Amino acid sequence: MWDSTFDETLRSFLPFLSTEEALAADTPLREYGLDSLATVELLAVLEQNYGVRFQDDALNLETFENPGRLWTTLAGLQPAS
């Protein structure tokens, strides 16, 4: 599962997700308000927060389809600890 930073960051870009609702791996991000502009802003915030750079092949609708896919992509960019 993802960390609290990811959860908090992602929630800030989902205006239609209430604070009481769980953010599940399969939550459809577009249905909760993640539009194209918000996706670009989210990408920049995630790159800054995690010190990574998304590769061109990860910049597609599937990557930003749901939290599970996005976290898997992001986790794959982070150096092993």
Automatic annotation (TrEMBL):
Lineage: superkingdom: Bacteria
All residue ranges annotated as the Carrier domain in the record: 1-78
N-terminal signal peptide: none
Organism: Saccharothrix yanglingensis
Name of the protein in question: Phosphopantetheine-binding protein
InterPro entries tied to this protein: ACP-like_sf, PP-bd_ACP
